[in-house]
Amino acid sequence: MFRYSVKRFLGAGPTLLILVALAFFLMRAAPGGPFDAERPVSPAVRANLERAYHLDEPLLQQFGRYVAGLVRGDFGPSFQYPDYTVTELIREGFPVSLRIGAFAMLLALLAGVTAGILAALRQNRAADAGIMAAAMTGISIPNFVIAPLLILLFAVHLDWLPGGGYGDGSLRYLMLPVVALALPQIAYIARLTRGSMVEVLRSPFIRTARAKGLPAHTVVLRHALKPALLPVVSYLGPATAALITGSVVIEQIFGIPGLGRFFVQGALNRDYTLVLGVVVFYGALIVVLNLIVDLLYAVLDPRVRYT
């Protein structure tokens, strides 16, 4: 398994290089620049700024310089936050985004798996139809629509929870953003779990377990749950990354100082290094999460062996 992990990490290098190249040249192709503002600077000041950040060099030379910095672990300076490097901004914003994303994934797993199991055990009954109808609704409504509705209901009308901000980072401030992020994922996981559980419950080894007189909850939890979770585990890698990166919209709506807000502001202000740093960071995160998912497969399914 160790050799497999090393090969996966080495194989991720070209993928990340392609990602960096696409992000780099697309950002440079966008109109405007990092030093454009409502009150444009003088040509002399602009020339000095471009020289200081090496923006006066040929584009391929800039790309080579940036890749060389990445190899050293240097994401470069931020154009719009001159007192910070991109590494410092990521270190400041990512823990907030990670906390919200982790809570949302935990909620999505608990609620989605439970709902999927209940629907499978009540297949073709009213409970099954109701859970799947709710899941389809959750999939159809994006979180940038759900978030304002949650604010309107729980913050404005009921006045139970704050409608925005991060405050002291307590659960009161996290609850609405976490729920807004988790609801679509709950729907996806519920549908995946339901379909997989229905198939597993029809398997010969489940019939054998029932024939031995085992209680229903033992059959489900001890024998059926682990193989039924394999499709869910496959979904966890990209889903976790989507929750963390998806917090870009949620952080803007709720005014949360996470990495998503830096990314949005960097894109609007043409802060090349900040946008590239976030893109590369999230790309590496997706690689790591997908590797963890592959290793979990071997834990859940003894037939899977990596060499």
Describe this structure in words.
This protein has twelve helices and no strands. The chain is globular. With 307 residues, the chain is mainly α. Helix 6 (143-157) packs across helix 10, helix 7 (171-201) packs antiparallel against helix 10 (230-254) and helix 8 packs antiparallel against helix 9. It has helices spanning 2-29, 43-52, 59-71, 86-121, 126-140, 143-157, 171-201, 204-211, 216-228, 230-254, 259-268, 272-300. The termini are close together. The longest helix is centred in the middle third of the chain and has 36 residues, at 86-121. The protein has a domain at 94-273: Orthogonal Bundle (MetI-like fold), CATH 1.10.3720.
Give me some keywords for this one.
MetI-like fold; globular; 307 residues; single chain
